[in-house]
Amino acid sequence: MADSKTTVEIEKPVVYTVTDIMKLLPHRYPFLLVDRILELEPDKRIVGLKNVTVNEEFFQGHFPGLPVMPGVLVVESMAQVAGVMLYRDLAERESKLIYFTGIEGAKFRRPVVPGDQLRLEASVLNRRNNFGKVDARATVEGKLVAQAVLMFAITDRPGK
């Protein structure tokens, strides 16, 4: 007999699967570094996941016998999560690209290794027309692994 005080927790719905993400981001294998979007507040905040597996190509050379995800790819993962938020409401997104214009205060706190699940969070600091900044953080099991302020510019895709 079930206890009448038992509560059932309802999981938050996944906002975007990897298939949905590929409809928004121009990135593809082996450079798509976001697997799922869990939370999204348009033009404010986004939370995504990257499942890190030993099958990632970069582990072959970084480092043989001691696989560590390169810090620049952790930053790229954070940027791609922010990109989902930006591309989502971008008019004519198929004809646009979002480029890094700067990275401020990047810090790497601990290594990311196969089996880790990166939780990637980005919050808009400011945005004016086609330029802006996001504050980004990556954690594994609640522990900060990387953080940075990422600056971006939205441009027309060449040839479009």
Q: What's the CATH C level? A: Alpha Beta
- Count of separate DSSP helical elements: 2
Q: How can the largest sheet be summarized?
A: 6 strands, antiparallel
What is the name of the CATH architecture?
Answer: Roll
Tell me the series of helices and strands, N- to C-terminal.
Answer: HEEHEEEE
Give the number of domains: 1
Annotate the secondary structure layout.
Layout: H1 18-24, E1 36-41, E2 45-51, H2 71-88, E3 96-108, E4 117-128, E5 131-140, E6 143-156
Antiparallel strand pairs: 1-2, 2-4, 3-6, 4-5, 5-6
Descriptors for this entry?
alpha+beta; 160 residues; Thiol Ester Dehydrase, Chain A; six-stranded antiparallel sheet; single chain
What does this structure look like?
The protein is α+β, with helices and mostly antiparallel strands and 160 residues long. The chain starts with 17 loop residues before the first helix and ends with a strand. The chain has helices at 18-24, 71-88, and strands spanning 36-41, 45-51, 96-108, 117-128, 131-140, 143-156. A six-stranded antiparallel β-sheet has the order 1-2-4-5-6-3, covered by helices on one side. The mean pLDDT is 93. The longest helix has 18 residues, at 71-88. Helix content is 16%, strand content 39%.
